[in-house]
Structures are given as C-alpha cells and as structure tokens.
C-alpha cells in the first residue's frame, strides 16, 4: 500500500473541512509550465512561499504606502500594508472555511508590482510609458516574467487571477480572490486613517459621524465591524458581501479619505518632486538602454519587448531610496575633490 504524501493528506483534509465554495488545492487550474508536485506543500502553499522569498517582495519594505519617506518608524510601507491585508484576508477565509493558503498567496502578491513613491509613481509611469502602467497589471507581469531573471515564479492561475483582480473594479474568479479585494480596502482605509492621525493631517473627530456611527470610533472598532459584516453576510453563499449600510459607510469613508488625505496638499506635498524624478530617470534610460541591467536588456533584445516597456519595468521595480540614489548619480553633480 502506497504511503500518502503530506500534500495529499492536506488535500484530502481540504475536501473534508472546507466550504463547497472554497478553492481546493487538488482542483487548481495549475501552472503555465507543469511541475512535479511537492510532497509536503500544496500548490497554493508553494505559491505563497515563492512570493515571500522573491526579491520584489522584499523591496516592498522600502516603497511608499501614502507618505513619502516618512521620518517616523510607525508609518506603513507597502510591505506592512501587504501583511495587514494578508492578516485580514486569512481571518475572513478561516471563518468562512475558504482556502487560507490561496488567500494569503494572493494577498502577499497583490501589490508586488507597485512603483516607488506609491500612487504618485504609478501615475507618472502611466503617463510617460506608451503602453501605460497599472500596479495590478505590473504585479502579474512581475510574477509571470520579471522575477528569477526573466523566468517568473510560475504561479497557479488562481493566484494570478486574484492579484490581477484585487482592484475595486476587478472581478476575481475565486472566493479567496474576492476576500482579498475587500481586505485590501479594509486595510488601507483603516491604517491610512491611523497614519494620517499620526501625521497630524487628521483627527478622529474629523471623521463624519455618518460613517463612525456605523463603523465605530476607532481603528480597532472599524476593523471589527467591517470584517464581522463580511463574515456574517457571506456564510453559506457563493459570494463575498457586506451588509448594505456597512458597505455604504465604508465607501463613504473611502471617499472622505481621498478628499482629506490622499489628495491632501500636506500629504501630497512631495508628489510633484517624486514624479519629476521618475520621469527624468525613465527618459534617461530610454536614451541609454545600454546601461540597463542585462536581465532587462534581454527582454528587449531577445524577446522583442519594447524598450519603453522594459525601462518602465526597471524604474517601477526601484525602491524609493534606490530611485533617489539613482537620480543623484545621474543628475546631481559630485563635489570635486583634489
């Protein structure tokens, strides 16, 4: 009698305990390049691990969430945002008996293609790159093509679908992808309020009562309300939904954050400098493609990618600090020493 692998035991356990609406590891649509199965980990567990161990994931710790290069140690970065999304997503997935490993993998990869300097970087690259730039599309490009020296991570289709469709207008094909689509908004609305209060841009009492009366008067209470609403209203149905009045309050709070924080002149005071910096770096490398790293030149010279797409790949992969250092090296004269 053949001995079952740990992976096979885990897959059988999923079949027994997960919701009928959950994505089972054994039923994955698979990878573009077939691989031998791991005897320990399911496919979704392997995807999660591949994302955590890749270079693009590590660089998120030095990429802006909202506030560019904040001096305080407690402001969120793109990495801490990602970890909070994963935590919220796993809480919801576990309560609904969905696949936690798939949920976590989507969460960890959802912003892996974000540009330096947050949405300011995304906006300028979308403007100057002829092919356009959107972080959710770039995140898929990173895991499919750019990581591992141009070989990509060869993730499952379900993980890539969740990454691509985590945006508000996205339509994930799995319940786990739908969980992350909500978890992303829940995370950034609440932690951005916390950071805005820390920055002195916002006070708790500034948040309109029409939202706090429904969601709560603290970050803790609002997180609890939003997560609980999803769990209570999504049990036993093939969709991820929220109570109507809670969803309306969340969307209203999101709009409030756009007008009072995301587009606030104090929070965005450095955006124009960041955009100008990335624009100059982009155009420099368009004129000096021979100075790009070989792994990027390879995409244009041997895989017929456009130089603008490749330069955009390189610039978008930079951390805030590396972009600043690159700008200084390219455009700021050095002090003459004798």
Brief overview:
The chain is mainly alpha-helical and 338 residues long. Helix content is 61%, strand content 0%.
Architecture overview:
By secondary structure, this protein is mainly alpha-helical. Helices cover 61% and strands 0% of the residues. The protein contains 16 helices and no strands. The protein has helices spanning 6-17, 43-53, 55-59, 78-95, 100-109, 118-128, 135-150, 157-164, 175-199, 209-215, 219-234, 244-262, 271-287, 294-301, 307-316, 320-331. Helix 4 (78-95) packs antiparallel against helix 5 and helix 13 crosses helix 16. It starts with 5 loop residues before the first helix and ends in a 7-residue tail after the last helix.
**Strand segment tally:** 0
**Total domains, how many?**
2
Q: What letter string, H or E per element, gives the SSE order?
A: HHHHHHHHHHHHHHHH
CATH superfamily of the largest domain: Hypothetical protein af1432
Outline the secondary-structure elements.
Blueprint: H1 6-17, H2 43-53, H3 55-59, H4 78-95, H5 100-109, H6 118-128, H7 135-150, H8 157-164, H9 175-199, H10 209-215, H11 219-234, H12 244-262, H13 271-287, H14 294-301, H15 307-316, H16 320-331
């Amino acid at each position: 009698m053949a001995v079952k692998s740990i992976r096979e035991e885990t897959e059988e356990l999923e079949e027994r305990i997960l919701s009928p609406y959950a994505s089972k590891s054994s039923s994955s649509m698979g990878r573009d390049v077939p691989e031998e199965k791991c005897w320990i980990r399911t496919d979704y567990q392997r995807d999660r691990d591949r994302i955590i161990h890749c270079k693009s994931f590590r660089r998120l710790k030095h990429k802006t969430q909202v506030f560019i290069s904040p001096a305080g140690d407690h402001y969120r970065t793109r990495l801490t945002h990602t970890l909070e999304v994963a935590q919220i997503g796993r809480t919801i997935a576990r309560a609904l008996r969905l696949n936690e490993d798939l949920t976590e993998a989507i969460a960890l990869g959802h912003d892996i293609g974000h540009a330096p300097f947050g949405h300011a970087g995304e906006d300028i690259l979308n403007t100057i790159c002829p092919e356009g730039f959107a972080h959710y599309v770039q995140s898929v490009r990173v895991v499919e093509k750019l990581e591992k020296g141009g070989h990509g991570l060869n993730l499952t289709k379900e993980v890539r679908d969740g990454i691509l469709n985590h945006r508000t207008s996205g339509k994930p094909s799995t319940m786990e992808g739908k969980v992350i689509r909500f978890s992303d908004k829940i995370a950034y609305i609440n932690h951005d309020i916390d950071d805005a209060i820390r920055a002195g841009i916002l006070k708790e009492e500034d948040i309109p009562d029409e939202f706090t009366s429904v969601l709560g008067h603290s970050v803790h209470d609002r997180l609890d309300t939003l997560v609980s609403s999803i769990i209570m209203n999504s049990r036993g149905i093939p969709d991820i939904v929220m109570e109507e009045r809670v969803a309306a309050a969340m969307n209203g709070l999101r709009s409030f954050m756009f007008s009072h924080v995301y587009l606030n002149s104090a929070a965005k005071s450095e955006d124009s400098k960041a955009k100008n910096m990335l624009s100059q770096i982009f155009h420099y490398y368009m004129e000096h493609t021979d100075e790009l790293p070989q792994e990027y030149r390879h995409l244009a010279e041997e895989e017929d990618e456009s130089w603008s797409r490749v330069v955009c790949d390189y610039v978008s992969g930079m951390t805030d600090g590396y972009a600043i250092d690159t700008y200084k090296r390219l455009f700021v004269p050095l002090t003459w020493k004798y």
